[in-house]
Specification:
Layout (H helix, E strand, L loop, with lengths): L1 H11 L3 H19 L6 H4 L5 H19 L4 H6 L1 H6 L5 H20 L3 H10 L7 H26 L5 H23 L8 H6 L3 H9 L5 H24 L1
Length: about 240
């Protein structure tokens, strides 16, 4: 698994594309958080990272599919997958190697955003940002990223075209993140089913973790979702 992990990680940074993607992610979040009218912390009136934690999932739903879209698509297109499966590795090792390689890149993209918290804390008067809620939100972003990557890996196994894989992954991430929440607001479900429908979506559990209390049900949901899509990827590879 480790050689595949290392290959996925190094391949992403073998050109400027990887660095540019992460730089765009950081600049876009910084622009929204510190510059854009009505969303920057200066207009908000007090020290908080709420705007960042609200917008970050939407940006990640595009960034992470861009990271994973070539995971299997390029292997299928170039014919290197056939060579890969002849090596003494199992399909699970191939999948988890690619998965953790992509997850490592996501963590690298998230780590510099701690600078936002430091800047806001330095600018704040009084106690500053709520540390517990910020830590909880970062944990939520990690699990959300891990789930997005599992979805992206699966979508990449569905097509030899990386662009198609990206579109499938981005749409799937957005639907699973906010789709159930939107469906729950349909008037016919307001009588009580809305809560249970909303519980199917990732945003429900992301918001729960972001409150600063990591509930075991939230963790189990994300781990189950990750395992489901990795398992579906394995089934897809077995059918090839």
């Amino acid at each position: 698994m480790w050689p595949i992990w290392k290959k996925e990680f190094s391949q992403y940074f073998s050109s400027l594309t990887g660095f540019i993607a992460i730089l765009v992610f950081l600049l876009l979040n910084g622009f929204i958080l510190f510059v854009l009218p009505d969303t920057n912390v200066f207009d908000f009136g007090y020290a908080t990272l709420d705007k960042f934690f609200f917008q970050a999932p939407w940006i990640l739903s595009l960034l992470l599919p861009a990271i994973t879209m070539r995971s299997f698509s390029d292997e299928f297109r170039s014919g290197t997958y056939e060579t890969l499966v002849t090596r003494p590795v199992t399909k699970w090792q191939i999948i988890t190697g690619k998965y953790f390689g992509s997850l490592s890149i996501a963590v690298i993209a998230l780590l510099p955003t701690i600078v936002y918290a430091i800047c806001i804390q330095q600018l704040a008067e009084g106690d500053g940002i709520d540390g517990g809620a910020a830590i909880g939100s970062y944990i939520g972003l990690f699990f959300l990223s891990a789930a997005f990557i599992a979805i992206g890996i699966f979508c990449s196994s569905l097509s030899i075209n990386a662009v198609v894989a990206f579109l499938l992954s981005a749409v799937s991430c957005l639907l699973l993140y906010t789709g159930f929440s939107l469906i729950s607001r349909i008037p016919v479900f307001v009588s009580g089913a809305d809560y249970y429908i909303e519980m199917l979506g990732m945003d429900f559990y992301y918001r729960s973790i972001s409150r600063g209390v990591v509930d075991s049900r939230d963790v189990i949901y994300f781990l189950s979702l990750i395992f489901f899509f990795l398992f579906m990827t394995r089934n897809r590879l077995k059918s090839n």
